[in-house]
Structure formats: structure tokens, C-alpha cells
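hey all, quick one before standup. I had two proteins in the batch that finished overnight and I want to keep them in one place so we stop losing track of which output belongs to which input. First protein below, input sequence then C-alpha cells straight from the run.
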Amino acid sequence: MTLVLGGARSGKSRYAEGLIEALPGPWLYVATAQAWDDEMRARIAEHRARRPAPWETVDAPRDLASVIRRAPAGRPVLVDCLTLWLTNAMLDEDADLAAERDALVESCRTAAGPMVLVSNEVGLSIVPENALARRFRDEAGRLHQRLAAMADRVVLVVAGLPMILKGEAR
């Protein structure tokens, strides 16, 4: 498992796609975004256009752990992105965030094939001014720490440049 972190427009998604495309296809792209407005629909369309066959896309804005568990054995999986999934879970007032986070971590630990997880590093800026934003930053940081601890490789992408934090470069 590889965890790819970076800021907005850092090149983390392209880098992660390249890691998966270096493996034999077909590849599974698990998308966590929801198209709430025209701008987000355009972003999603841009990402999809970059992924011709043999990519298969599965939308999983919430039940990410189940999608990972159901992925065929040996099939390379790319999840993009964990912070969008976290946002979706936090905005669902009925969600048991701790249980969903634990299920996600466990599904990653027991994944039946190679997996690359993409997420935004959100802890490099100022302390957010409101409680929800601070909670989001804290939850993302905790999730990243758990996944990084069990990942084979962790990469931070800045300005399109990958920096290997853990493991070896490919």
C-alpha cells in the first residue's frame, strides 16, 4: 500500500495514477467526490478524461471500506481522495465517524491487491478559525498517521515533485 499526500493541485493524483498504471491492468479507480456544483462536476470530468480504458471507476463517496473489501484479488486499486471521503462522512450527522474510519483502515490493511491512497495534507497551515475545520484537520491528521504507519510507502508530492517519506521509490 502506498499513501500519497499533497496539497491542492500538487500533482498527487497524477503521480498516484502513474504508480497504478505501472502495474498490470485493469485498474480500479475509487472516486470519493460528489458533484454538488458545476465546478466540482468539471473537476470530476477532468479526472475521468485522464483515465481511459482499462480504468474502471467506482463512485464511493461514503462506503469506501466496502468497495475496497470487494475489489477483486490482485487488482490494483487507486482511492482518490481520502479527505473528500472524510468530508462526506463528517457532514453526515448520522455517521459514526470512528467506526467508519476503523473500517476503512482495516479494509486497507487486508486489501487483496496493490493499493494507492491519495489524500490532502491539511496540517501545514494556520490553525483554522472554526471548530468544524479544526476537527476536520485533526481527523485527517489522525487518519493519515494510522495509514502511514501501516503503508509500505508514503509519498509527499509538492509542485509535482514526489518526496519519498517512507519506503522506496518506484
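OK second protein, same deal, sequence then C-alpha cells:
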Amino acid sequence: MTTTVELTRFRVRPEHADRLPAARSGMLADFRADRSGFLGARLVRLPGDEWLDIVEWRSPGDFAASRAKGANLPGIRAFFDLIDELVSAEEGTTDESENPA
């Protein structure tokens, strides 16, 4: 199964970093309740106050529909509000042939 992967790199001010995990929980709950095709997500802390958000979607259409909704729910908005600067945003696909089950 091929999935769509959203890769978003962003900066959070050091004084907000401790609030990110709680806000993340709220965002993921809202995604599960409101975003068709949401499969899961991983958040990676990088050096220099940067983070990498890796989100998997069932299809490019599901990802596009999610982007169109933006921060439409409180949990999503609370997470986005902690982001100080967007560094990069990319979309790709998995190649499941490399990792057979």
C-alpha cells in the first residue's frame, strides 16, 4: 500500500517547547475525529529549536482536503499557534516495495 507523506519542518521558540507535547495530543485527537484518511503521525525534535512533523495520509486527496480545512478545530489551532516559523513543507509517497511486510 502506498501512502502520502507530509513532511513539515518548523521552529518553536524554546519557551514554548514544553507546551508542544500537550498541544500535539489535542491536534492528533482532532485529526482522528475530523480528517478522513489520516493514518498517523510522528514528531521529531531536531537541533536548533526545530521540529519535523511526519504525517501519513491514505491518499493525496485526503492530504489536500486536510490542508483546505486548516486549523478548523481548537486542538489543531493550539498546536499551530506554537509554531514560530515554518522552515519547509513537502509531500511525498512511501514505497512499500522496499519494506515488505
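Flagging for whoever picks this up: The chain has one domain: 4-90. The mean pLDDT is 94.
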